[in-house]
Amino acid sequence: MKGAHQSKKSGASESSVDPKAEGASGSSNNESNPISNPRVIALLNQKGGVGKTTSTANVGAAFALAGLRTLVVDLDPQSNLSLHFGHEPAPDQPTVRDLFMNPDIAASELIRQARANLWFIPSDTELALVEGELALQANMQHILAERLAPVMPSFDVVLLDCPPSLGVLTVNALTIADEVVVPTQAQYLALRGLEKLLETVLLVQRALNARLKVAGVLLCMHESQSSHGKAVVEEMDNYFAKFRGSGLPWEDAVVLRPAVRRNIKLAEAPSFGQTIFDYAPTCAGAADYRALAEALRQRWKPVESRADFATSVGIAAS
Ligand SMILES: Nc1ncnc2c1ncn2[C@@H]1O[C@H](COP(=O)(O)OP(=O)(O)OP(=O)(O)O)[C@@H](O)[C@H]1O
Ligand SMILES: [Mg+2]
Question: What is the CA radius of gyration of the chain?
Fold first, then answer.
């Protein structure tokens, strides 16, 4: 456990930070893990309140504790992600909205340090206006990719906390992502929502981002004793098994294990401006997110270099 994670009052630094200049972890994964450039993971479900933000914050914190230089980006106008890091939004501070609307502000100016190895780009409620404004812009699906390109080499992992919709912000996230993780509950209706989400992933994968894969669903607030829950998990396992070898972006998708159990500490932590590893590092929620981050990492295969990616989306490689 690193020192920055031990204080109950630990909060986000209010100055923007260049991870390279900070020396970051000094333990980049490049030697131990064959992935190239950051692994970009979009946490996405168009249904609200399923655990996207809780998972982004705590998987991100778990990666950071494991020594990966991790950037989390809040793409949701509700701005809940920052709460997990103790960040109080200030009216004059640039946010992810500037990434989309203000080309004069460099991405590096938006990045704030939350903990050792952990940085974030905050959101603000005005991001809601961006959806409408972006819809009028040419090339609007690529803005996030273009604007983040210069800072990408500074990180090992980038996590994108998507809003509960399949709108322009989500499409921007899918355009830059290597993989999609779908936080969900083990409920029958979740399966139907999943099919709609996969349709969107397929459209983006075909038109905008050939690398895009679905890692799988992440069961949040899981109650393993519920017989309905058990039946739905089995149905989800069977659903994904049908697509092996299909060539579709979810051909390797699984129900990720472990499930994250319902744990009140996970709900309490953000009100103290803390991740679960600050607030209750020995609770079940911390154990689940630590194990889940490790399980995600184990699944990573080498991805094409970001230079190839930059070419594929028609932007200059940084
Ligand atoms: N494993 C868990 N145990 C208990 N409470 C949880 C757990 N995971 C998330 N929560 C709580 O459930 C609520 C919804 O979680 P969260 O905000 O992460 O969902 P979301 O999908 O990001 O929501 P939105 O779609 O509104 O952005 C929050 O109050 C959160 O604290
Ligand atoms: Mg959220």
Answer: 18
Give me the amino acid identity at 82: S
Q: Model-level pTM?
A: 0.88
The confidence score (pLDDT) of residue 303 equals 54
d(CA 78, CA 95): 13
Atom of ligand 1 nearest to the CA of 222: 1
pLDDT in tens, 228-248: 999 999 999 999 999 999 999
Torsion of CA 165, 112, 62, 163, to 10 degrees: 0
CA of 20 to the centre of ligand 1 (A): 32
DSSP element (H, E) containing 240: helix 227-241
Nearest atom in ligand 1 to the alpha carbon of residue 264 is 4
Q: Atom 23 in ligand 1: which residue has the minimum CA distance? A: 49
pLDDT for 17: 46
Sorted by where each starts, the structural domains of the chain and their CATH numbers stand as: 3-312 (3.40.50.300)
Q: Is 314 left (phi over 0), alpha (psi -120 to 50) or beta?
A: left
Q: Does the CB atom of residue 271 touch ligand 1 within 6 A?
A: no
pLDDT at 242: 97
CA–CA separation, 192 and 72 (whole Å):
28
Residue ranges with CB less than 5 Å from ion ligand 2: 52-53, 80
Residue 302: per-residue pLDDT: 63
Residues pairing with 178 in the sheet: none
Q: Which pLDDT tens digit goes with each residue over 169-200?
A: 999 999 999 999 999 999 988 888 999 999 99
Is any ligand 1 atom within 6 A of the Cβ of residue 51?
Answer: yes
What does the pLDDT read at residue 32? 41
In angstroms, what is the span from residue 161 Cα to ligand 2's centroid? 7
